C-alpha cells in the first residue's frame, strides 16, 4: 500500500463535524497556558528562564521532579519528561536585543512497560510545558526501544532499569541498609540514526543465564562482588562502557570486581550464578534478543502535506527523494518529513486549527502503516524554531 493511501481525505479528521474546532484557537491557548501556570513543576522561577537539563517522572498523573543523582537512569515501567534549555545566537533578521536566545527541547520518554495512563499524561504535560514556553519548544517522542541521537547525546551514562513507580520503586540512599537483589546489566552497541556511529546502551535484563549473549558485555552485581562477563565477540567500546558502569557502581561501595572473558574457563562462575550450572561457556553459543528495536532506515526521504485548503483535511505525498529543501515547505500547512529513522512534523505559522490539532493522530497512523517505522522517534517543530537537527535532516 502506498504510504499515503488511506490517509487522503480523512473524513474522521474533518474538524467541522467534530468538537475540535477550538483546538489551537486563542481561547484554547489561554486555557492551556492557565493550566500550565498552575503546574508546580514548571513554576519554580527556573523553567523557561535558565539553561539546564530538567527531568520529571509521571507518578499517579502528577509531574514529579526526578533526583539529579538519578539523571540518565530510566525505568522501563515509567514515563518521563525531559527538558533541555540552552542559549544560542540569534539568526540574522531576528528581533534585536540580546545577542542570544533561550531554546528548548522537550522529550517525553515512554518505557516499554509504562501504563497507558502514564504515557498519556506525559504526552499531555509535554504539550502543556510547550505552552508554558510560549509554543517555541521542539517536542520529541522517545521510545525506550529506539533511542534517538538527540536523546542519547543528553546522557553519556544512559541506563535502562527494570521496574518503575507502579512496582514500588523509590529512590534509596546508598547509606541505607537494604536487602540486595542480584542485578544483571547488558551493555551493547546500537546503531544510531544515520550518524555513522554506534551508541553504547546499558539495559537491566533478567538475571538468568538465558540473558547472556556472546556479542555483548554483562555486569552482574551480587552485592558483595561485581562480575564483568565479556562475550567472546564483544566490541572494545562495550568493554570500556562496562568499566565506566562498574566505576559508577563502586563509587559509593567498596566491593571486589572480577572481569572474566567468555573464553576463560572460569567464566562459568557467572553462568553458574545465573542458574546455568553444568553449562560450559567454552562450548555453548549464547544468544539473546536485544531489548531494542532495529527500525530500518528508509533510503529515500518522503515529504507529506497535511492540508484542509480544499475544505476537508487531507494527507498527501508532496515530494519524494533526497533533494527536499526548506523552500519545499509552505507556511500555510503542516508537513511530515520521513527522513529515515526519524519522522519530523513541521508546523507552518499559517496552518489552520484543524491541521495543528490533528498532526499527532496523522503521524501515529502513518507510523502504524509503515511496518519498518514503528520504532522510530518523531519530532514536532514550528516554523522559525526548527533547530539545527531539522535543517540537517533536510540536507542529509
Automatic annotation (TrEMBL):
<feature type="domain" description="Gelsolin-like">
    <location>
        <begin position="328"/>
        <end position="390"/>
    </location>
</feature>
<dbReference type="InterPro" id="IPR007122">
    <property type="entry name" value="Villin/Gelsolin"/>
</dbReference>
<feature type="domain" description="Gelsolin-like">
    <location>
        <begin position="199"/>
        <end position="250"/>
    </location>
</feature>
<dbReference type="Pfam" id="PF00626">
    <property type="entry name" value="Gelsolin"/>
</dbReference>
<dbReference type="GO" id="GO:0015629">
    <property type="term" value="C:actin cytoskeleton"/>
</dbReference>
<feature type="domain" description="Gelsolin-like">
    <location>
        <begin position="62"/>
        <end position="151"/>
    </location>
</feature>
<dbReference type="InterPro" id="IPR036180">
    <property type="entry name" value="Gelsolin-like_dom_sf"/>
</dbReference>
<dbReference type="GO" id="GO:0051015">
    <property type="term" value="F:actin filament binding"/>
</dbReference>
<dbReference type="GO" id="GO:0008154">
    <property type="term" value="P:actin polymerization or depolymerization"/>
</dbReference>
<protein>
    <submittedName>
        <fullName>Gelsolin</fullName>
    </submittedName>
</protein>
<dbReference type="InterPro" id="IPR007123">
    <property type="entry name" value="Gelsolin-like_dom"/>
</dbReference>
<dbReference type="InterPro" id="IPR029006">
    <property type="entry name" value="ADF-H/Gelsolin-like_dom_sf"/>
</dbReference>
<dbReference type="GO" id="GO:0005737">
    <property type="term" value="C:cytoplasm"/>
</dbReference>
